[in-house]
Amino acid sequence: KQAEAILDPARRLSIAQSMICAGLRSVAANLRYHAYRGQEKVKPAIAEIDEYIKRIKDVEDVSSIMGWEGQARLSYYSAWEHISPALTLRKRTRRPPTDRVNCLLSFLNGLVYALCLNEIRKSQLDPTLSFVHSPQQVRFSLSLDLAEIFKPILADRLLFALVNRGELQDRHFDEKPGTCLLSDAGRKLVLAAFSKRIDGEQQAGQTYRQRVLEEVFGLQAGILGVRAYHPFVQRV
Fold it and tell me: What letters, b where the CB count within 10 A reaches 16 and e where it falls short, cover 8-41?
């Protein structure tokens, strides 16, 4: 049934749109949280993201979804410096990350991917069959799909908290020209904070780990036609 849904262009597009739009609504919610607390300069980025969500709803293929999602991410990252100068992200770099914010974002995103894959394995879903990302792009591409929903909630918000609370110091990074990685101490600190967020914090009476598993089963039920699939969205 999962393969049938992916091979049906209309069904694949519908599920992909719902996943990416849910993730971008949580992205916008992250900025609204700070806009409501007086950081007015993030508001233009919120308006841009809302517009990209509308455009994603009207596209006719998955590749166009990813194009608009990429533009929305650029608007999102450009607003981070208005939350805190320490969160400034001029350019997203990954292999290798070139600065502390990119380093933290890549590490946290990797933890979200791993969490999603772990929860997918508790279901009957095939982690190699995905709706948004190409199954050829990475072996367990369904975890990348689900991570689009949870990265703004579990990675970005934790990154903001760690930076704004000043928990990260020089000893938590291993910096060389053009490269920035977490040190052993940095990885331990971030891992502990991530574990506390997914297993300790409650969201509507659930841990976030439970919420990810519920998302997995919701997708499974949607594929099987048991009930409509509506991805999770973080409210402000």
Answer: eeeebbebbbbbbbbbbbbbbbbbbbbbeeeeee
Distance between CA atoms of 201 and 195, rounded to whole angstroms? Answer: 9
E-state strands within the chain:
173-176, 179-182, 202-203, 206-207
How does 72-100 read in b/e, with b if 16+ C-beta sit within 10 Å? bbebbbbbbbbbeeebebeeebeeebbbb
Report whether pLDDT(53) > 90: yes
Q: Which two tokens stand for residue 234?
A: 């973080």
User: What is the spatial distance between Cα 36 and Cα 32, in angstroms, rounded to a whole number?
Assistant: 6
Please, are residues 182 and 92 in contact by the beta-carbon 8 Å criterion? no
Q: What is the mean pLDDT of residues 148-170?
A: 94
- Residue with the bigger pLDDT between 178 and 134: it is 178
161-198 pLDDT, tens digit per residue, is 999 999 899 999 998 888 999 999 999 999 999 999 99
| Cα R_g (the chain), whole angstroms | 18
Backbone φ, ψ for residue 233 (5° rounding):
-130, 130
State in Å, rounded, how far the first CA of the chain is from the last one.
35
